[in-house]
C-alpha cells in the first residue's frame, strides 16, 4: 500500500466518486448556460425592439428641422401680436363710436335719444361737466366757492340749460354706512342740490381712484364735449374757461392743463412721496409731462377711454401723475394752457388789467389758494371776470 501511494497513481476505489462528481458539475454548468428556444426568441425580439427604437430616435433627431420650429414660433408671435393689436383696436373703436355718437347729436339733436344711461334714460347733453373735488371736512371751502365763482340755485340750473355747463361738488361716502358724515352731506345736498355722489370711500390717499370713478360716473350721466376736475380751493372764471375749451372742440383727443414735469420723490415721509419711484428710472429722474392736479380738462373720448378701461388703469401715489400715465401710448394732444395756472393777486390781477383774464388762480406753495376760505372772495374781487362774464359767452 505504501508503494502505491508513492507511485502517484489514483486508487481504483476513488474512481466512482470522481465520476459522480463530474456528472453533477456538468449538469449544473449546463443548466446555467442553456436556455430553451422560447427564451432565445424573447431575447431576439427585445433586441429588435431596442434597435428599432434606437433607429426611430436617431431618425427624429436627424429629421427635426430647426427652421420648422422657428416657423412655429414666428406664427405664435404673430398671433400674440394680432391679439394685442385687436385689443387696442377695440378700445379705439369704442372711443371713436362714443365720439361719433356725440357728433351725430350735434348735427341731429332730435336723434340723441339713442344715447342712454345705464338705467335706459337718455343722457343729458352738455358742453362741459366740471367736478369740484371736495371732502367731508371742507364745508366752508364749498361755501366760499358758492359765494364767488359758482352760481347757485336757479342760476346754476340756467347755466346748465342755456350754456351746457354742469358744475357739481364730487364726493364719495365714508367707510361706515350712513355715518354722521354722510348724513351731513345729504343735508347739504337737500339745501343746495349741487353734489355728484360717487361710489367711492373718501380718503386722501385714494384720489387716483376717486378721479377714475368721477370720470366714469360723469360719462355715464352726461354726454359732454369736455370733463373737468378742479379742486375746491381754486378760483375759476367760468366764461374765460368755456371760451378756452371751445377752441379745442373740434379736436378728438385733448388733454388740457398747466403741464409740468416735477421730480420723482423717492424719500419716504415727504409730501408727494412716490413708492413706485423705481419705475421712473434712476434716482433723481423726473415724471413724464402731465397736467398739474389743481385743474385739468379732457375731451369726451379720453373720459370714455377711462370709463371703459378704469378697472385696469394703474394708480400711482399722486392723482395727477396717474391721469397723465393713462394717456401715455395713446394718440393724445397735450395742451399746455398757462392761463389755467395763474397765481393769486397780484399775478392774476396784473394779467386781468392787461386784458388777459386767467382761467384759474391758486398759490403753488399751497397747491391751491392758501387759506382759501378767507382769501377766495379777495381773489374773486381782484381777478374775477365779473358776475355776468359767463352769460355773454357764445358756445
Map the helices and strands.
Blueprint (H helix, E strand, L loop, with lengths): L1 H6 L7 H19 L3 H27 L2 H42 L16 E10 L5 H8 L7 H10 L1 E9 L6 H13 L2 E7 L5 H15 E10 L3 E2 L1 H9 L7 E7 L29 E10 H10 L9 H8 L6 E4 L10 H7 L6 E2 L10 H12 L12
Parallel strand pairs: 1-2, 1-4, 2-3, 6-8
Antiparallel strand pairs: 4-7, 5-9, 6-7
Helix pairs in contact: 4-10, 5-13, 8-10, 8-11
Protein name: Hexosyltransferase
Main location: Golgi
Membrane topology: Single-pass type II membrane protein
List keywords for this structure.
395 residues; alpha/beta; Spore Coat Polysaccharide Biosynthesis Protein SpsA, Chain A; seven-stranded mixed sheet; two-stranded antiparallel ribbon; 13 helices; disordered N terminus; transmembrane helix; beta-1,3-galactosyltransferase activity
In short:
Strand 2, helix 7 (180-192) and strand 3 form a beta-alpha-beta unit. The N and C termini lie far apart (149 Å). The protein is 47% helix and 15% strand.
What is the succession of H and E elements?
HHHHEHHEHEHEEHEEHHEHEH
Structural class: alpha/beta
Number of helices: 13
Helix content: 40-55%
Query: What is the mean predicted local confidence, pLDDT?
Result: 80
Largest beta-sheet characterization: 7 strands, mixed
Q: Which CATH top level class of the domain at 124-261 and 291-391 fits?
A: Alpha Beta
Approximate strand percentage: 15-25%
Q: How far apart are the first and last residues' alpha carbons, in Å?
A: 149 Å
**How does CATH name the architecture of the domain at 124-261 and 291-391?**
Alpha-Beta Complex
Low-confidence stretches: 1-9, 28-44, 55-64, 101-114
- Which descriptor suits the 3D outline? globular
Strand order of the largest sheet: 3-2-1-4-7-6-8
Radius of gyration: 42 Å
By oligomeric state, this entry counts as single chain
Domain DUF4094: 11-103
Membrane topology: Single-pass type II membrane protein
Subcellular location: Golgi apparatus membrane
InterPro entries: DUF4094 (IPR025298), Glyco_trans_31 (IPR002659)
